[in-house]
Amino acid sequence: MRTSSRSGDFCRIRRVNRPIWRPSVGCSLRAARCATPSLRHCFACAHPRDSHSRCNMADTTQTFSQLLLTYGPGAMLDLPDHAVVVSGLQGWRYSGQWQPIEEQRLVPLLRQQLGLGKEFEGLRPPPEHDDERHDDRRPGVDVMVFPTWFTVEDAPPTAGQAPATTETRRRMVEFEHLQMRGDKLSYVDPVSGKRLGVNPIRFVGACAKGHLEDIDWRGLVHRGGDRSCRKPMFWVERGVSSDPSDISVQCTCGARVTMADLYKPKFLGTCGAFSPWLMPRHVAGESCVEDLRLLPRSATNTYFAQTVTVISLTRTDDRVRQTIEEHRQTVESLRGLPNFIQVLRSLPLTREPFAPFSDEEITSALAGMAEANDSASTNPRIAEFDVLASGTPTIGHDAAGAFLFAETLDRASLALSAPWDRFIGNIVKVSRLREVTCLYGFTRLEPPPTSAESELDEIQLKVDGAPLDRDVKWLPAIEQFGEGIFLHVKPDFIRDWRDRADVREQAGELQRGEALEAAHFNRPPKHLGIAYWALHSLSHALMAELALECGYPISSLKERIYASGAGQPDRFGILIYTSTAGAQGTLGGLSGMAGRLPEILAKAVQGLELCSNDPICADHHAGTDLDERPLHGAACHACILVPETSCEARNTRLDRGLLVSTLVGSKSAMFLREAIPAAST
After folding, report:
1. Are 656 and 639 in contact (CB under 8 A)?
2. How many domains does the chain have?
3. Does residue 199 or residue 43 have the better pLDDT?
4. Other Cβ atoms within 10 Å of 192 Cβ, number
5. Is residue 313 part of a domain?
6. Residue 410 CB neighbours (<10 A)
7. pLDDT digit string (tens) for 613-672?
8. Could you list the residue range(s) of the whole structural domain that residue 56 is in?
9. Within the chain, how many helices (H) and strands (E) appear?
10. Alpha-carbon torsion, ordered 557, 456, 115, 103, to 10 deg
11. Judgement on whether residues 94 and 160 belong to the same structural domain of the protein
12. SS3 state at 582
């Protein structure tokens, strides 16, 4: 892939033109030397090896975010003329000067949660395309040809076969029988000598552990028969229905298998433990007990990225916390002293490291770290909340290159009326923020848990996360800059609402929904609490209303919900933000709405009372096993569901009945209708 050298948000794909089952055959897509002088031909260009030293092909580009979230290592990708699988991290080529992504809170978290050793180097951005370079070592990402079975376009009937009028027959060929002319693979008919185009087979095999392989088409067609048969095979489609029973693979010898057969459980046998994006693609002795399943290459469940996202703190706060961590033993031994900080500054070991920080910075950092040290190691949101909800008038610095700059609005200037005076703790105008997203794995067939359930998606599903490399020494990440609004919700308000008898009853219903969902995915239930459901629902309503006011489409807005669980100090808040590639960030349209947030909040809540799908929407309850939506209460696309790029929980754990009384009534509503002031228009 390639990236624009100006904005740094594009990456160049370099195709390694080889069948993944023959790693000795290789050429990069552009300006790369043939890797195997022992072979007579390089399949990348179909020229004799001794007649050329370079293959000139076209590049393909992807954005950084596409590479991390959609087309990362192990993902299948359709290029204009080829179907490929994106290489693991061993195929990410860097050259020239590049800067690692620094995020001091994220690297220790990854080491701890993923079991990475001391050799883990940290985070890297995808290799950035250099327009000025045209040599073999240009930065980029390798991709390998996959699948290695193809169907031939407009192939003439095989000798002895009459042309069919009610079916479409395409000859099936393997990669080793193809040639490359220009940028396109083609098949030369042995009888007519005509060069024919080819298309990759639409189906591959995958398992619940993320493995990927070609279907053994010849073995399946001849199962129970002569597996040594090498006669031509055909992809046959009858009619236009695309029903699996109307699609079959047939051999000239008469053997056949239908696609309906291939969808049967255990029909494809056991997975072969192949990982075509890694080198080597298969390790001797490696096995897999999972059943191989038929998977269309274009299906939406072929690739689910596993990512973790953090909002960077101010650099000063980050440095204070890092310094405390480096001298934790000394700091802990002195914490009980009344003049603890003075003693800390007097010791030779700690005098110089703590000199750049004020007493207030050290005290604030210690308070935030000590309050929930155990939780902070697995949930980076705790430190983010502590900084944003600190009440400090100015957070960070308003300077180029700053990671975070925010201002806590004066409550007196907001003129809050009931119930917002009891609900709103602080409103923070976030003029600049930095978001870092790291890719650390992926799943197939079923998605991993959402970031709301676990900051690191620990796989407890029927599927397992697949690795990005055989030996992970670094992980890819992207940084984006933007702006937002942070709403700090008063803990007393949430506690009073949560302690009501009808709300406790509703919380039990929501837990049943979470248990049903967890049982479906064969994992332990994760109960986020009714406060999370309520704040998440409010966040969606707020994003929809802000999109009408701030100039950003709702699909460009994101959310981050802060709702502590049982046994943790109360932290409740909502961060609505937007971010984009490039250090310039965004233009202030969203953060400029901070002063109007109470008014916008009132409009958002009032709009939840009615839905165009009522009474069906209002009468839906979470926790019911009558449908496949146990994580939805009164919620649908007509009211509070948003584009999934905007939601941190894949549009689950939503119920507007937790906020207002709907058409069918709601005893657990957080805001009573008579208590909500009319919003100005």
Report:
1. yes
2. 3
3. 199
4. 10
5. no
6. 10
7. 999 999 998 877 666 788 999 999 999 999 988 999 989 999 999 999 998 888 889 987
8. 10-105+138-145
9. 17, 27
10. 30
11. no
12. coil
